[in-house]
Specification:
Oligomer: single chain
Radius of gyration: 18 Å
Structural class: alpha+beta
Strand content: 35-45%
Number of domains: 2
Largest sheet: 12 strands, mixed
CATH topology of the largest domain: Pseudouridine synthase
């Protein structure tokens, strides 16, 4: 395992890199000179080359800037195409863990209808009949209970903007550390527990290697909570 200045490399070969992205680092930005996953990896790969040239970094999927977790990145176009196919057909599996306010039922499935507000970079639960409503579905299981919060494991059935954060907030259990979707009680508890960022981590990922005939699985422990 190697570390760039902000990333921890979990796995690397000639086709892909799997990294542990920290909370607070954007996956990709349009701002020149800003640090993000893509620029960090390009710098890392450039330094590894004997013949210096612009390295290929193919972004397969994203994590929101405040969210920690596992990302897989392609090192060539062929790998990028195959990994993107797996993402689209649902065979690239990602699981998340989170700390949420309150104690929901031990496990469950939530279905809501969301609308993305691009101007304000947020999503909201709306009724199904409204225009632009998109179905959001997830499954969760409570792993550990505290007095007024718990740790949950989450599997997404759909992939919507801010989906986990929005659905847990809409169902009365906002994520700790979430100032955008949290309620006064969850925000107060987050301060008390000294949780500075959204307590959400993409902690598991599994996929078929783009060129080798084998399935890869990775799991990490969140740094922040």
């Amino acid at each position: 395992m190697e570390n760039t200045s902000n990333l921890k490399i979990i796995y690397e070969d000639s086709d892909i890199i799997v990294i542990h992205k920290p909370s607070g680092l954007a996956t990709q930005t349009g701002n020149v000179g800003s640090k993000d996953v893509i620029s960090e990896l390009k710098r890392y790969l450039f330094q590894q080359q004997s013949k210096k040239m612009e390295p290929y970094v193919g972004l397969v999927h994203r994590l929101d800037q405040p969210v920690e977790g596992l990302l897989v990145v392609a090192k060539n176009p062929k790998a990028a195409k195959e990994m993107s196919r797996q993402l689209l057909d649902g065979t690239l599996n990602k699981d998340y863990c989170a700390l949420v306010y309150g104690i929901p039922e031990d496990e469950g499935t939530w279905i809501n209808w969301l609308k993305h507000d691009k101007k304000n970079n947020r999503s909201d639960v709306i009724v199904q009949e409204l225009r632009d409503a998109k179905k959001a579905e997830l499954n969760y299981k409570v792993l550990e209970k505290k007095d007024n919060y718990c740790r949950v494991q989450i599997k997404l059935t759909t992939g919507r903007h801010h989906q986990i954060r929005v659905q847990f907030a809409a169902n009365g259990h906002p994520l700790l550390g979430d100032n955008k979707y949290g309620n006064p009680e969850s925000k107060e508890l987050s301060v008390k527990l000294k949780i500075p960022a959204v307590a959400l981590c993409a902690n598991k990922i599994a996929f078929k290697h783009p060129t080798l005939n084998k399935t890869l699985q990775f799991e990490i422990v969140p740094r922040q909570f």
